[in-house]
Design brief:
The chain starts with 13 loop residues before the first helix and ends with a helix. Strands 1, 2, 3, 4, 9 and 11 form a 6-stranded antiparallel beta sheet that branches. Strands 8-5-10 form a 3-stranded antiparallel beta sheet, with no helix packed on it. The longest helix has 17 residues. The protein has 9 helices and 13 strands. A hairpin with a 6-residue loop joins strand 6 and strand 7. It is an alpha+beta fold and 303 residues long.
Length: 303
């Protein structure tokens, strides 16, 4: 598979950054997020996983090794751990990194709004139901089609541990009608076989960003014992529309519960202090796209 084009050399040339994003549908940067912030967040998440009995007691915490049976988003035991991750102030603070905000403003050519909803992924090894099929983000995100998704590894992710793949140039086909598929989101799209998938091994501090109509998917974690941790967050220009569902936390949680221990933080309910947000409801949201882990398991077993 062809590796990502690395765009660090374009950081001081906003016109070339915008052109590359228009041409390829994605931008990839090495080490743009401070590594120490990523690793501190990784420690916090792995400590939660360790307390839940997910990690091997004989292994180093930072290695994230597990012999636990795979769990999926939506299952009660997964959700209990995930709620504790979502309650970390540091988990939500990453998207306020000044270098990323500056980069986004150079792309949108105006101030940008970081979406309140931040998503975390904890992928168990050797679990085919974890694989995310090719899809476009807009059916889940709604609002402006110019919104940009960001995906960041929470630690090093070699190719065999999986990570996000992008179908280069696929955004040029426009919106594609999705169809049902197993895995997170339970939606996929047909892809143009003439286009190339691109992916690189990730290192802590790297950032992948892509357009709403760029086709992408997460490769399965093919290791025998290593968990894959990652996060995703989104931005749009202040003149663009945002779907109201993305003002809420991920996975039916509430801000009142999540912010309990950091309610005095500058990022708590920051969107309520944001003037002139353009908000509408997104008809494609989870009512039509809700992930059902029981169905996903059944579909996987029947393959």
């Amino acid at each position: 598979m062809k590796p990502f084009k690395e765009s660090n050399k374009l950081l001081n040339d906003s016109s070339k950054l915008r052109k590359q994003l228009r041409d390829d549908g994605y931008l990839f940067f090495r080490g743009i997020i401070p590594k120490n912030e990523i690793l501190q967040l990784r420690i916090q998440i792995l400590e939660i996983c360790q307390e839940a009995g997910w990690l091997r007691p004989d292994a180093k915490l930072m290695d994230g090794l597990t012999d636990h049976a795979p769990l999926l988003e939506g299952e009660d035991k997964y959700n209990d751990v995930y709620a504790r991750v979502q309650a970390l102030e540091s988990f939500h603070r990453l998207k306020f990194n000044k270098d990323i905000i500056s980069l986004m403003e150079s792309i949108f050519q105006e101030p940008v709004f970081p979406f309140p909803q931040t998503i975390g992924r904890m992928a168990f090894p050797n679990d085919n139901a974890r694989k995310t099929h090719p899809h476009q983000d807009w059916i889940f995100v709604g609002g402006s089609t110019e919104t940009i998704s960001c995906w960041a590894p929470l630690g090093d992710i070699p190719l065999e541990v999986g990570g996000l793949q992008v179908l280069e140039g696929s955004h040029k086909a426009g919106f594609l009608e999705p169809r049902v598929a197993l895995g997170p989101g339970q939606r996929t799209v047909d892809i143009d076989p003439s286009l190339e998938w691109v992916q690189s091994g990730y290192q802590a501090g790297d950032l992948l960003m892509f357009k709403m109509l760029t086709i992408h998917g997460a490769a399965p974690n093919l290791t025998s014992d290593m968990m894959r941790l990652s996060t995703e967050f989104r931005y749009t220009g202040e003149s663009h529309m945002i779907a109201e569902e993305w003002l809420l936390p991920h996975m039916d949680l509430t801000w009142e519960i999540l912010e309990k221990d950091w309610s005095d933080s500058s990022i708590a309910h920051y969107w309520e202090r944001w003037d002139n947000l353009k908000i509408k409801k997104h008809e494609w949201f989870w009512e039509q796209s809700k992930y059902d882990p029981v169905q996903a398991r059944a579909m996987t077993k029947n393959e």
